[in-house]
Amino acid sequence: MSYNWCHGPECHTNHTQSRVRGSGDNKVLRTIKIKQGSSYRTHERYNMFNYFCGNNCLMDFIRLHLTSIIAIAPRREALETPIKVVKEKYESYRYNWTENGSERVPYQATRTTIKSVDNA
Length: 120
Ligand SMILES: [Zn+2]
What we know:
The chain is about 20% helix and about 35% strand. It has two helices and six strands. The strands form three sheets. It has a two-stranded antiparallel ribbon with strand order 1-4. Strand 2 and strand 3 form a beta hairpin.
C-alpha cells in the first residue's frame, strides 16, 4: 500500500493520540501518514486529501506557500462568463393586516434570473 506523509507544515505539532509514536521517554508526535487509494480520496473533488490529513493542514500549507502557489498560475486579467439576464413578471401576493386578521393581496412581481449562454 503506497502512502504520503501529510504536507501540513505543522501536522507533527498537533497534540492527538493518532500522532504519538515511540515508547517510554522517547515519544514523539509524528506527521500523519495517508494511505492512498480510498474511494473518497480518488474522487477529483477530494484528491488533495491524498496529501493533507485535513483542512487545517491544507490551509497551513497554502498560507506558508501562498506566494509560490499563486506564481504557478497568476491571474492578471479578470475572466468573464457570457450570460443572459432574464427579467420575468409573475403573479405573487402579499399579506395585508386588517382588523379581522390578514388578507391576501395579489400583485405583479418581477424575478431576475441569470441564465447560461451556450457558446458551442
Ligand atoms: Zn496533517
